[in-house]
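Researcher: I'm preparing a figure for a lab meeting and need a structural model of a single chain. I don't have an experimental structure, so a prediction will have to do for now. The sequence is pasted below. Please return the structure as tokens so I can convert it later.
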Amino acid sequence: MPHAADTAAREARLGVTYALAAYLVWGFFPIYFKALAGVAPLEVLAHRIVWSVMTLALMLTAARRWEGVRAVFAQPKTLLTLCATTLLIAVNWLVFIYAVGAGKVLQSSLGYFINPLVSALLGVVFLRERLRAKQKLSFLLAAAGVAFLTVQHGELPWISLALALSFGLYGLLRKQAPVDSLSGLTVETLLLFPVALAYLLWLAHQGTSAFVAGPTRLTVLLACAGVLTSTPLIWFAAATKRLRLATVGLMQYLVPTLHFLLAVFAYGEPFTRAHLVSFACIWAGLVLYTIDAAKLLFSASRPE
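Model: Understood. Here is the structure written out token by token.
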């Protein structure tokens, strides 16, 4: 049926557009947070939470989808799970904001490169998923890369590991929570909202708020945090509805790649021989894992 084929192709193109838009925003996030480098990470995080709640509230009102949020608060088990994901996403956001402000975008790039492997490892530990031989080798390569960097630099790349583990655990728990992405993110930010708002009011009372006492440029940038947080998530959700997960998974590497390029070529962060060896091991592990996963998905979807 030509008409059905045309519709499917059009939806796939739209899905790619949504995915690219989301990944490009996330990929260029360091530029935004670099512009806020003079603001304390906790204040940036608080603004991100408060303005996200306002943005998401407008979106839910326009879409008439508040029932999803109300349903979560009526389900204690789901709410408890989202309390855990709330803490994890707050840690992830805070560590990333700190990394950018401290000139450690390269470490954040490393964290998001190893995140898919960490997520798969968490699946083995908590969901009893099994790894194929090539997948095990990919983990060993990634572990070797992290270990080499640790030995050469004399310190654990804690930013990379914190980002990968917090987001990996976040994805694991959100996968088990029966709630859509928009409602889930709204609940998570609502849970953080009272603390974040109280902190910002306290800063304003102390006269140390960058939003109140800082230049207009900072005020505008902080107010944009909600849109920049929420919009790419909506685009990502729209993309996953139209594309195969394998396609979305491959495209996700665009984010750490852009972070890597910004760190090395825009911000001049040192890229040593130890970094080269470490990243080479991790990239090799990712390539091996992705190819093996793609082959498995293709064989499973192929008609008998």
